[in-house]
Amino acid sequence: MDKKIINSFLFKISSKKYIAAVSGGPDSMAMLNMFKHKIKTVAFVNYKKRIESDYEEQIVKEFCEENNIDFFAYIVDWKKENEKINNFQAHARKIRYDFFCEVAIQTNNNNLLVAHNFNDFLETGYAQIERNSRSLYYGILQESMYKNLKIFRPLLFVEKKDLEDYCISNKVKYSIDYTNSSDDYERNRNRKIILGMKPEEYQFLVKRISNYNKANKDKLKKVTKYFYNWEISNYDISFFKKIPNDLWFNIVYLLLINNHLGKISSNKINGIIDFISKNSSKEYRVTSEVNISIKNNKLSF
Length: 301
What we know:
The chain is about 50% helix and about 15% strand.
């Protein structure tokens, strides 16, 4: 199984060296072992929210020491963070990716591997269907950007069970996050629903997501090109207004998702479009932590 995966992604891995986001779970530890000869640096975030977190840091650090991989760890100080928290998962994600960006700057390497798997892909797609999302893509993109970080997901179409089996057969240490079985988060509830599906229901979900993505492939390509050019312009307002306005909704959707700017809703997207269109001198509240404004004719947040 591991050779098949590695061969499938040689076109991405090539001669590059990568930073790997590793949590100590079976997915990221499998990825770390598979691509250890291409991974120069590992970035680990210790949220100090579970008893296992120190053990997870230890096994990741030991693996890096054994394989001559640079190890960067970030210990979250919740005394400083608590005042900012509204949505814990969104905030934790922002902490994580901002740290990855810091590591990228320190190591002069902006290529990041993340170990999302096919289960993650389906859970995201299922949630989007349930919300009647107007995203042009259901699931998780295999490649994306966060600020200047290029993110690659080489295991996106590999099932979680296969990754756990890989760790066991290759004697790779890993830890299981017990909070993944909690019903406190939407993703966990969706995971249980998908796991409880009959085979024909599961295949229908897979096919529905696949067909939706194929139908939107060309439009997504066009929107993505416009978005990245807008990003290169530092979110220039004049550039945005030259984009065909039937694409504005999807452009702003990418703005929100690529920068982890909280929960996405049609009201929020339309509010930002209206804010940009009017070139407002005021601020627009995107999340409890982030406001956007227009300075020197560029969107700032």
